[in-house]
Structure formats: C-alpha cells, structure tokens
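Retry 2 of 3 after timeout on previous attempt. Resubmitting structure tokens to design endpoint.
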C-alpha cells in the first residue's frame, strides 16, 4: 500500500516540475538562438581583431628585417672589389660567382619569412638583381604604386606593381640603399606574396570553416579564401553590387546576410582603425545550424538533468516520509531477535518522531535490564573461574600468583597485536584462558605436584597431563568451551616438540602460542623450591634465544617490543641467576 502511494506521489511531483520547465525552455529557445548569433558575431570580431594585429605585426617585422638586410647588403657590396657587371640583365646571373655571399643573404632572409617571395635590388647604375629569375624587372619597366598599411608610428608603406596576366599578385616593402659607392646605391624590394600570406592566415589565425577577405585601404583584395580573387579590386567580385547594397544598409561594422546561389551566408564586416584595411568573414547558415544543433543538445541535456533532479527530489520526499516507518519496523524485528542495543534515528514528521522517541525509550529500558543480567552472569563466571585457579594455588603454594601474572603478561601481548589478529578472539577470551590454563593441576597427585626433587619419567608424564585436563575442564563450561584448544595446547612448541599433541607452527592456536611465552617468562622470573628466579633481562634473553624453536617468532617479536617499551615488568626477587630446569620447566 505504501509503495503504491509513494509511486503516485513521485509521478505527481515529477509532472509538477517537468511541465513548467519544458514550457520555459521552449519560450526562451528563440532568445537562445539569438544568443548564438551574438556569439558568432563576437567570435568574428575577435578573429578579425587577431588577424589585424598579426598582419600589422608581421609587416612591421618584415620591414625591420628588410632594413637590416639593406644594411648588410650595403656592407657586402661596398667591401667586395670583384663586384662587376655580368653578362645578362634582369635576373640573378648578372652577378658573378664571387657574389654568392650576397645571394646567400637573400636566401636566408627568404627562408626565415614564410610569406616572402622574391627579393629584388634595383641599382642606380641600371643593374637589376633578383633572388628568383624575373625578367619583368628592369630600369625601364617600373610601374610601381604606393600603398599604405597602418597609421602613425605603426604605418608600413608598400609598393604595388601591376602583374602580367596569370601572375601571382604581390606587395613590396622597400628600402633605399645610400652609399658613397655607386654600385651600392639603389632600391631594395622585398616581395610579400599574397598567396602565401593567405595560406599563413588560414593556417595560424582563422578557423578553417570561415571564409575571409581582407581589403587594403585602396580596396585591393590582399587575402581571399578564393585565391583567384587576390590582387583584384573589390568591384571585380561576383555579386559585388548585391553585397555592397547589403553592407551599406547595415552599420560600418556589423553582421549582415547575403543570399548567393541559393545559399544563405552570414557576413561580418569590420574596418580596422589601426590599419585602415577592411575585413570580411563569412560562414554559411549550415555553420550556424551546427551551433544551433549544439544548443539543441544542451537543451536535451538540461531537460535530462531536470528529470534526474525531479526524480531525486521526489525520491527524497518519499524517503522522508517512508524511511522512518520502515526504520521502526526493522528496529522492532531486531528487538524481537534479541538485539536490545538497537536505536532508531529521530527523523520524519512530528507524529513519527514521537513514536520513534517512545521506541528508543522502551529499547533503552530493555537494554539496561539485559545488560544488568549479563553483568550478573559475567560476575558469576568470573567467580567460578577464580574459584578454580585459587584451588590450584591453594594446592600448590609455590605457584601462588602465577596464574594472574601469566594472564597479565598475555593481555599485554594481546594489546600489542595487530587489529586484524585481535579479531580472532576477544580480550576476555584470552583472560579466561590465562586464568584457567593450569586448572588441570588439581588432578595431579600431591606427591608429584609438590615434589621438590627431580621428577621420574613416569611422574613427568603425569605432570604433562595437566594441560589435557585443563582443556577438558574448560570445554565442560558452556560459555568457555571455545577457548579450550588454547588452554590444551599452551605447552606446544613451535618446532613440534611440545605436548600433548606435538602440534607445529601455525597448527597451534594463537591463544596457546601467547600463553606459552607468558607462562615461560613468569616461570623463569619466579622463585621455585628447586631454583631461584632469573632477572627480567635474563628471562627476556632466554625468550629471544628460543625464538623459532620453542616460541612463535611473531609472538616473540611482539613480546620484545612490549618489553623494550617497559610494558612488561616483574616484582619477584632475582637474587639467584640460572636457567629453567629441564626437569621442572612445567609451570
């Protein structure tokens, strides 16, 4: 019933969010489309500004290098006595082979500038030298016109030359060479190839999908996507009249559209204040449509996000109402199974929180009652265990306090174990095992247990049965039966030579391995009827010596750390030094 109600609430809330959201998206779609055109215009403006800066910077850089080339050329010609007139006029072979250094100057300059074509020197004495063979240059044929790019200090002057039919159009940067040597006087011209200039702009500045045209101040086409138009006057463009009427109707700088051969094209026009050049960039409507498709994707993605958000909010709302109820039901089930520590978080509506508070109060009262009963049971178990080991100590007064000391040392070792190793058993388990590890001595005859001399082989075998008896007694106590293996095997050795079952290595329960170290350490530091106690340092050294033979190396390592930290200390007298008797090492 609750699930059906929650589903209906979820659907209703989802519709309430999605309905207005979709309506708003459609209402503002046209404004978003207009924003795409604004973005397109902004991009165009940024591109044109970048092209204008790059062109002006490029021309200034080439002009600077041209001035430097002119200085080098002047020094080269002036300092070369073999500079004589060659056999031909109009191209490079006029120069003698000794002028190879001058040719190298031109070639290096041309290689360093991507847009540079030919380099020409027109001497005052009528000689003409060009890097690349060009018969159109002569002192009698110099139809040069001046063109200006930029204003003020940023101005760069060009020379233009009407090319023959089919020749690439070019602009020339000039530098006049003045020298006392007539051979070094003339005009140095560096060609800026407009085809190369267009390629450079298209490669490094303008996006490939845009069309572009740049007009010089005299309205000569310097750059054009269609290279066949380069060098022509703008009036020679197809559809020029239609385009001019369109941009004359618009602002000086701005966006206008043009229908050419059935294609709707958007053109952005800008006249640069820095250079005086006019820039045109255009993009077919298909390019704008691509951006509108991205807008559609954004719209769909936004709608998807809104749906997810609506689902999340509806889910949270249903969870706010339903989760407290399910939490109460689950907590009640846990209470029925005996988990009286269970509590429910206070959440949800006022009525539900009131019920949650009542439940927590009831659970606390039941938990207190059960805890009290467990404490009584624990105290009873402690009294039973204490009665057992006190019975042993009353029977064998020489081992008085031994059980508690072994337990104390074992618990110190436990506290130094890694957390993962401590999960194998609880601290209380080890405490009970330590207190009960010698309980089997109650079954050992007094003449054997209390004998001060050397035990006979039969008596020794009888004494060794105390660990078996201890394990069997502990196994009979229902709450302690799980620790009986540790009690039974606390005299096993790591090398398998212990008793009663000659277990080896990891076969020995971890409790038994811990008790073995603790038991032996206390035995060596306690005074017995047949020997005096060792000092703590001597017993410690003996434990380390038996690592890997009698004791688990990892437990010895932990014991070593605890001893060095000062956690393990003894109070027994150690006035007589010596080793544990092999005949009476059972403790």
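Retry 2 succeeded. Sequence:
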């Amino acid at each position: 019933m609750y699930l059906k109600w929650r589903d209906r609430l979820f659907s209703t809330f989802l519709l309430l969010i999605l309905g207005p959201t979709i309506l708003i998206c459609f209402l503002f779609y046209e404004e978003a489309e207009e924003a795409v055109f604004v973005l397109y215009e902004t991009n165009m403006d940024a591109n044109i500004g970048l092209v204008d800066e790059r062109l002006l910077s490029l021309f200034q850089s080439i002009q600077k290098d041209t001035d430097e080339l002119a200085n080098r050329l002047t020094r080269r010609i002036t300092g070369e006595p073999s500079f004589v007139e060659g056999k031909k006029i109009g191209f490079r072979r006029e120069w003698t082979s000794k002028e190879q250094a001058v040719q190298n100057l031109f070639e290096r300059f041309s290689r360093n500038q991507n847009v540079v074509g030919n380099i020409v020197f027109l001497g005052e004495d009528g000689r003409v030298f060009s890097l690349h063979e060009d018969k159109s240059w002569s002192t009698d044929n110099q139809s040069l016109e001046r063109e200006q790019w930029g204003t003020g200090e940023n101005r760069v002057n060009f020379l233009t030359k009407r090319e023959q039919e089919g020749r690439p159009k070019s602009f020339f940067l000039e530098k006049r060479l003045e020298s006392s040597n007539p051979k070094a006087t003339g005009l140095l011209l560096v060609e800026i190839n407009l085809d190369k200039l267009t390629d450079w702009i298209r490669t490094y500045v303008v996006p490939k999908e845009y069309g572009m045209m740049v007009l010089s101040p005299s309205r000569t086409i310097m750059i054009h996507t269609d290279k066949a138009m380069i060098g022509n006057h703008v009036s020679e463009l197809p559809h020029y009249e239609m385009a001019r009427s369109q941009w004359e109707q618009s602002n000086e700088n701005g966006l206008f559209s043009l229908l050419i051969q059935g294609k709707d094209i958007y053109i952005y026009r800008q006249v640069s204040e820095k250079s005086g050049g006019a820039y045109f960039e255009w993009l077919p409507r298909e390019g704008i449509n691509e951006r509108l498709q991205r807008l559609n994707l954004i719209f769909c993605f936004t709608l998807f996000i809104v749906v997810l958000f609506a689902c999340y909010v509806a889910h949270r709302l249903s969870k706010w109402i339903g989760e407290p109820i399910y939490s109460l039901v689950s907590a009640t089930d846990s209470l029925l199974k005996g988990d009286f520590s269970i509590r429910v978080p206070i959440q949800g509506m006022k009525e539900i929180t009131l019920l949650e508070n009542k439940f927590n109060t009831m659970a606390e009262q039941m938990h207190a009652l059960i805890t009290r009963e467990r404490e009584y049971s624990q105290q009873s178990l402690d009294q039973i265990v204490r009665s057992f080991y006190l019975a042993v100590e009353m029977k064998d007064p020489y081992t008085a306090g031994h059980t508690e000391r072994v337990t104390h040392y074992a618990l110190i070792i436990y506290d130094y174990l890694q957390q993962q190793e401590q999960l194998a058993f609880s601290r209380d388990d080890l405490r009970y095992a330590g207190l009960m590890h010698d309980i089997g001595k109650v079954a050992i005859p007094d003449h054997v247990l209390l004998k001060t001399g050397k035990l006979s082989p039969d008596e020794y075998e009888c004494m060794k049965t105390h660990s078996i008896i201890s394990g069997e007694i502990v196994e009979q106590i229902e709450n302690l039966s799980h620790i009986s293996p540790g009690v039974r095997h606390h005299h096993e050795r790591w090398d398998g030579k212990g008793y009663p079952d000659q277990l080896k290595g990891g076969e020995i329960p971890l409790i038994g391995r811990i008790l073995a170290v603790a038991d032996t350490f206390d035995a060596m530091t306690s005074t017995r009827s047949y020997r005096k106690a060792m000092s703590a340092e001597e017993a410690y050294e003996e434990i380390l010596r038996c690592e890997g033979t009698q004791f688990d190396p990892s437990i010895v390592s932990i014991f070593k750390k605890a001893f060095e930290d000062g956690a393990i200390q003894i109070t027994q007298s150690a006035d007589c030094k010596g080793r544990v008797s092999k005949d009476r090492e059972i403790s």
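Attempt log closed. The two ends are 69 Å apart (CA to CA).
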